[in-house]
Structures are given as structure tokens and as C-alpha cells.
Amino acid sequence: MTRVTRFATRDPGPAARMAGFMAHLRGNGLRLGVGEAELALQALTHVQAANPAQARLALRAVLTGCAEDAARFDDLFDGYWMNGGRVVTGAAPRVGANSPHVHSSRTAPDGQASAGGGGDAAAPDNGEGEAEADGEGRLIAITRQSRAKLDLRDLVTPEDVAEAEAVARRLGAALRDRRSRRRKAAKTKGDRPDFRRIMRHSLATGGEPMRILKRRRPDRPVKLVSLCDVSGSMRLYAQVYLAFVAGLMRCDPTADAYLFHTRLVRITDALRDRDAMRAMGRMSLMADGFGGGSRIGASLDLFARTYARRFVDGRTVVLILSDGYDTDPHEAIGAAMQRLKRRGCRVIWLNPLKGWRDYAPVAGGMAAALPHVDLFCPANTLADLAALEPELMRL
Amino acid sequence: MDHIALQTALKGHGYVASDDLAMAIHLALALGRPLLLEGAAGVGKTEVARVLARQQDTRLIRLQCYEGLDAAQSIYEWNYQKQLLSIRAAADRGATEGAEARIFSEDFLLERPLLAAIRQDKSPVLLVDEIDRADEEFEAYLLEMLSDYQVTVPELGTITATSRPIVILTANGTRDLSDALRRRCLYAYVGYPDRATELQILNARCPQVSAALAGQIVGFVQTLRKEPLDKVPGIAETLDFAAALIGLGIADLTSNPATLQAAMATLLKTESDRFNITTEVIQRIAGQAA
Fold first, then answer.
1. Is residue B161 within 8 Å of B181, Cβ to Cβ?
2. In a mutagenesis test of the B interface, which of A101, A191, A203 is the best target, namely the one with the most B β-carbons within 10 Å?
3. Is the pTM of this model over 0.80?
4. Within a domain: B290
């Protein structure tokens, strides 16, 4: 392990090897661009690049950007530069075809996203599916009726969506206003004098400040992101929630929505369809596997690592609709929630079971998530959701 | 100067830097890039900037971040009172001509840390402390300044840097920083030190502590960090603890349980930690450390 990798003699040189190393890091999930490659080469000119210990320290400082990457870096460095003296041919990188904006749980980094046997029956097989992939997949047979092909249009009627839309609009409004701490020039009213503008205007009147202009704290819109659990245990409630999410999407152009069961699916674009029923139809195509098991931890983790980086910030409220029954170890939920909270968002968890008498969040997953949740509420019906309004006002 | 020399130089100023950190600082200086330091509170992130300023014999300019920090507090602001007085004085003299050019001149500009940092004769160390407390808008200002090293004042024009500051940003994970900011910076994670490093730090900062007691203190704190605590004591706490023990006249940790208990105020900073780490636990840890 401590022996330095040998490169093929026809290899074009150190720059190409560095490019290969960058590709290796990118392949392992570090987000690095051409700028970093250039900087890394520059950095190596300032140290003894032939000394592995120094090169390692220098590249770590340049190529990592957060504590996690820094912790993984040593292994990645060893994997490329210290592979025990084996010859590496073709160190130059190959171009990957993955778009950075589409995150599929089938290519999730933990490599176990498809362990539940939830293959994608609706998508054309492109030769990279389960059957072709080698790994430790398990084939699971169940005797229960499969609801994998269930059409959401059977569950949700247009009236439901219309009603849910009204509720969603009210909830959206309740969450809307969050006052910024920053002040900006006010048109009329404000709480602080805007000296800069007063001064400018006073010049016209010989230094006499005739008009007192103000600065105010503007209201900043809050963005709503909803994550809806559609696993088997949630089947009864999913109907209400999906109608609600559909309603939310139709009344709020900035909202964002996802479904998860054993996989995470972004349904924002599908739900923006102007025809409510067609939207539900498109969603049920995407929600293939609806009513199966749930992998909340893995789904939330994937969300926190990928979509959340783009869509979730300090002015976002994340709405999770789930009963917290997870087939994964529940530590995963806690870790994923913590990661999500680090984006600075507020998290509301709506749990249908909380409406039951004597309910206690004893399910491991729910208990692990609770410390990271800002508001934990029951919600079985649209009426329950509507009743959330005052709670959300206070948040 | 390579990173080993820098490490030695920093040590001369009382800062024991790990190889990682020394290399990151060395590259930040060599490449002229900002350096982002992350780590728990009290592991010496801010101290890096102070010591580096001393080692480079230059000024330290510090900007403490908070939510809602804006351009008026971080870059520049006009001195409104002075402007107002000047206009009135000019009006009294009847010399209103050219008032605008006069009051929007350098004399009336109050420079805040970011502007001050690019207008020094000698490259200062600019410490942007706890950047994760500021909001995204401020990150955007900062990005602009870190890439161009210039500031535009609408009334005055663009002020370009006379010297590029050595920029150190610190964060302790209140929120995720944007990828754009992380990309512009070199990165080092400052963790809790191991036993040998902490002993070196203690010897460098509190030379009056005897070798035997120093060993005990470091052993004690290292063991205490393994306990399930809300707030794990950092190096700053270790140094306070050592100072407290010196002040209380303790030469051996096991000698006086009551006094040791009193000195724990420097290490345990939350109520639940005080409650969970009982006198018995303290005695057990002290016994192990001795």
C-alpha cells in the first residue's frame, strides 16, 4: 500500500496523471473543476512534489472543501498514487455522461439503493439495469399483492386536488412572510432613516434634509419543499398528502416536491402540469414502486446530499410527510436529518400516526429524526392539514 | 520557505500547527488564495490568523460575521454626520458650489474591514471570523471581493487593492457554506489535537506549568473528551484549565478533589455536562491521568 503507483511509459506526463487523479476524485463524488486541477498543479510547484507525504498534504489542502472530503482524501490518494506498485495504463480521464443536475438513487454512492429489488419496470432497459450489474443484489419474492402499478388517478379525484389546493394556498401564505434581518430602501414606510438617500436628496435643498427617507426590513418569501412518503405503510394517507402536494405545487411557483419509497423521485415538473389529472398520471409513472417498502434514511440522505444543495437554503421550509417506519437502520435517518438541517432550513414533520391516541414516536426512525425537527404535527385529513395554519404562523 | 519552516516559525510565536494546517497555510501564502478553516469551537482557528499576522509582522484586520451583516458594516459607509455638518457649514459660508463632489470624497468615507484590508501598504491578514453565521448575501459580497480584490463605491469609483490581503476564513458548521465559496478557498480541517501536540501547545502557551502537571492536565482533558459531552472542551479550555490550576496552587490533580471540582468550571460549559460529569467521574479520570 505504501508503494508508489507506476505509470505506463507511454503516459504523457505529470499533468495527465494529475488529470487522471482529478477524474478519480470526481468519480468518487468530489466536486472539482478545471480550476482546481490548475491550482493543484500550481500548488505542487511550491512543495517537493516527488515527496508523497508533501504532495498528499498539498493536494488535500487544495482539492478538498469540507471535513468529509478531507477525511476521505487519504484513501482516495492511496487508491490512485499508492496502489502497491501496479502499473496503471491510460491515466488520462474518460468523460462521464452523468448530468450533475439529475440525481438518481439508482446510482447512489452507497451502492445499495436497489437492494430491495425495486427495479424500474417502466423505464426502458439500457443495459445498465439490475440484471447486468454484478454485485450483491438480493432477489426478494413476496406473496402480497403488488401495488407497484397502482395509478394515483384511482386514488385522487379532481375535487380532492381542488380542495387540497385551497388548503395548500392558505398554508403557503402562513409560511410566506419571514422578515429579513437586512434592511433595504423603503418606498414609503420604514423603521430606520436611510441616511445615504437623505443626504443625496438634501443636496438639492442646500443641505436641509426636507424628506426623511426610510429603510425597512423586507419580507422574504419562504420556499416550500415537500417530501412525501408513499411506502406501503403510508398507503392510506398518501392519497390526502399527494393531493395536498399537488395543490401546493399548483398555487406556489417556487415550491418543490419529491416522493420517496425505496427511491427518491423529484415530481416538481410533473406536478406543474396544467391539467391536474394528467399531472397525477405523470406522477404515478414516476412513483413506480408505490406502496412498497420505505427507505426513509437513504432517501433523505440522497436528498440532503444532492437536491438540497441546490434547492434548500436558510429560507426554506422542508415538509416531510411520513410515518417514520423505515426498513433501514434508523441511525441513517438521524444522520440524514442532521445533514439536511445544516443547510439552515426549518423542518416540519407531518406524521399521520401522531393523530392517534397514545401515540408515541417510539419507532426508531421517528425517534432519531425528532431532535432535528422544528415542528412535529399530526395530519390525517385535509382538515388536519388546514388546522396547521396557526402552528406554521408561529414557526 | 517550505511548510516545515513555516511550522517552525509559527511555533516560535507560540502556535503549534499540525502538518496539514502548516501545509495549507504555506500554500495559501504561496498561491495567494484565501484559506478556509473549519473545526469545533476552541481548537485555535482564530488564533491562526493572529499568530500569522505576528509572524508576517503585519496588521490583523478582523471581521466578525453575524446574520444580517451588510455592506455598510463590512465594506464602507459614508460618514453622514460629517457630511451633514459640512453641508451646513458650507451653506453658512455661502459656498454651496461643489458641495456634492466634496462630501462624496475620501475624507467622508468610513472604511470597514473589507475595504481597509485592500488599502494597506503591506498585505495585512484579513480574518473573516465565523463566516457561517453571515447569510448568503454576505457570502456573495465576499466572493466578489475575494476574486477581484476591488471595491466599487458608486459615488467614488472603483478602489483597487494596493496590497492583496492574506485571507483566513473560519467556520464551525452552523450552516453549510456555498460551493462557490468553498471552491475559491484552500481548506484545512482543524481537529482536536492528539496528546503529544496538546502537550506541546500547553508547554508553549503556559511555560510556568511543571512537566508533571502538564502531563496530567493533557491526560485529563484527552480522557474527558471521550466522555459523552454536549460541548467538548477545546484547546482554549485546556489552557484556561491550566491557568486555573496554577491560580489555585494545585501541583497534582489528585491531591485536592474539591479544588479540582472548582477548576472544572473552565472545562464543562453546559449544565447537563456539569450534571453528568460527577465528582466520582472527575476523580476516576484524574486518577487515570496521574
1. no
2. A203
3. no
4. no
